[in-house]
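Appendix B. One record, verbatim.
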Amino acid sequence: MSGKRPLIGIALDSQETGCFADFPYFAVRRHYFQAVYEAGGDALGFPHDRERLDFILETFDGFVFPGGDDIDPDFFGEELHPTVKKVHTERSAFEIDLIKKAVELDKPVLGVCMGMQHLAVARGGGIIQDIVDQTSTDHNHWQKPATTSKHDLKVEEGTLLHQIIGANVAEINSVHHQAVRDDGDYIVSGRAHDGIVEAIEVPGKKFCMGVQWHPEFYVDPDFGINQIDRKLFEAFVKAAAA
């Protein structure tokens, strides 16, 4: 990619306790940064700080919303399922608001796993809180280690995802127990063989997409290079550069 490298903002996850004397901290896996760098962009992490929301919107050319834990079902009007054990209400509230504003401004958005679910909720969609209990699938979507879990992705023709991948079927990793419902202001561009939503996008935008798998893992030498995931990040960064 020639010219100025776009600056991508990567939302940081938060934990109240950790390895640093049990102090709260912000962090995110380095895979996300490396994937952006390799795609031609620069990246900085940002915390969920509502007082700096406008500054964050103005600073970055595009946004990556990474994976994380579960979403508080209050955000989509449901009771808490018993398998939902860890939610980050403050992070979810901030990211959902930021996504809404970023989409309005047509700034490129890539949501990954929990980030995809935040995009869905921001667009009025709901979440399947536990795939095993709330669907009839016989497939295990919660596979670990994530770097070796795989299943097929069926890609919808005519979508941006299909344009990027250039194929009707792809192979993706699978490490999630929740999933997006097909009931928001977006289109479903990819599903697993059992019908579980694996990708959504908002038409008419430069780039506004959520994927349930982890495309950033392609930079992990233990996982190998996945050209499909590389193409996804390259398309996102190219949209941000525009």
